[in-house]
Amino acid sequence: MVLSAAERAAVRALWTKLGSNVGVYATEALERTFLAFPTTKTYFPHLDLTPGSAQVKAHGQKVADALTRAVAHLDDLPTALWALSDLHVRQLRVDPVNFKLLGHCLLVTLARHYPGDFSPAMHASLEKFLSHVISALATSYG
Amino acid sequence: MSFLSAEEKGLVNGLWGKVNVDEVGGEALGRLLVVYPWTQRFFQSFGDLSSADAIMSNSKVKAHGKKVLNSFSDGLKNIDDLKGAFAKLSELHCDKLHVDPENFRLLGNVLVCVLAHHFGHEFNPQVQAAFQKVVAGVASALAHRYH
Q1: pLDDT tier at B142, thresholds 50, 70, 90
Q2: Is B135 on the interface with A (CB under 8 A)?
Q3: Which residue of B has its CA nearest to A122?
Q4: Do B34 and A121 touch (CB under 8 A)?
Q5: Which first-to-last residue range defines the signal peptide (chain A) (predicted)?
C-alpha cells in the first residue's frame, strides 16, 4: 500500500505542525507503550523507565529524530533507515512485533493531542506511514 | 484472580460511563474500514464504501457499529468472565460470519484511538493501559470458540 501524493502531503503537513514537539510526543508514546505493553520493557533493562525519567525523554528524542528523518525521506525509507534497521536487527535483536506496539501508541498520542487533525483519512495516512517505517526497520531481518 | 485490578476497573468504568456508545461504535467501525481497507470484505452489502467520507456517513456502517459496541459494552459488565459473556458471539463469528480474529484486535486498537481522540488528556497512559487489557480480553474471548 504505497502512500499517495495526498497522503504524503498530509503526513508532512502534520509533522510541520508538530514542530519541535515531536520529541515530547515520541516520549509520551514510549511511556504509553511501556505501561500498556510491559513486555516491551525487556529491551530496556539499562534505562530508568519511570514516567518522566530523563532517560526515557532522551530515548524519545532519538525516536522522534528517526521519525522526522523518515518523513523527509518518504520516497526511499529503506535506504534512509538502513542504519537503524541494522541496529535494531543485528545488535538489539528486537522482535518486530514491538514496532507495531510503539506505532499504535504513537497514533494514540497524536489522536489525543491533535483531535482536530486526526480525521479518519489522516488516521489512515499515519497508519500507512508507520507501517512503511516498520517495514523499512525490518528490512535487515532478511 | 480478577482480570482487571480494582483500580483498572475504576478507570475503565469511569471513562465508559461518559462514552456515547452508539456514536463511538459507528466511528470505530468506520475508521476500521478506512484505515484497514481489507476489512471491507465483510461488508460488501453495505453500499457505498468508496471513500473515507462515504464510509463514515454510511448509515449501515453506523448501525452495525452501534450493534458491535453495544455488545462490547454488555461484555464490560461481565469483565471477569469475558469468555462466558462472548461464547455465543464467538461461535457466530467463526461458524456463520467467518471473521479472522485478527480483525477483533484491529477493531480494539481503533477503538482505543477513538477514545483518545474523544477524551484527550483524560485518556492518559494509565487509562489506555487498562483499556488495552480490556480490548485484548474481548478479542481473545471472541476467538475462544473458534475451531
Answers
A1: very high
A2: no
A3: B35
A4: yes
A5: none
Alpha carbon of B119: minimum distance to chain A alpha carbons (Å): 7
Ordered structural domains, chain A, with CATH:
5-138 (1.10.490.10)
List, as own/partner pairs, every contact residues B90-94 make where C-beta atoms lie below 8 angstroms and the sequence separation is at least 24, other chains included: B90/B141, B90/B142, B90/B143, B90/B144, B90/B145, B90/B146, B91/B145, B93/B142, B93/B146, B94/B145, B94/B146, B94/B147
Closest CA to B12 of B72, B55, B65: B72
A32 to B125: CB separation less than 8 angstroms, yes or no: yes
> Residue B139: pLDDT above 60?
yes
Q: Rounded CA gap, A123 and B36, in Å?
A: 10
Low-confidence residues in chain A, pLDDT < 70? 1, 142
Which residue type occupies B47?
G
Give the domains, in start order, of chain B with CATH numbers.
6-143 (1.10.490.10)
What is the reported pTM? 0.95
Q: For residues B96 and B145, is the Cβ–Cβ distance under 8 A?
A: no
Confidence of residue B6 (pLDDT cuts 50, 70, 90): very high
Give the pLDDT score at B123.
98
Is A120 within 8 Å of B52 when comparing Cβ atoms?
Answer: yes
Whether residue B87 is predicted with pLDDT greater than 60 in this model: the reply is yes
Q: Do B104 and A114 form a contact (C-beta atoms < 8 A)?
A: no
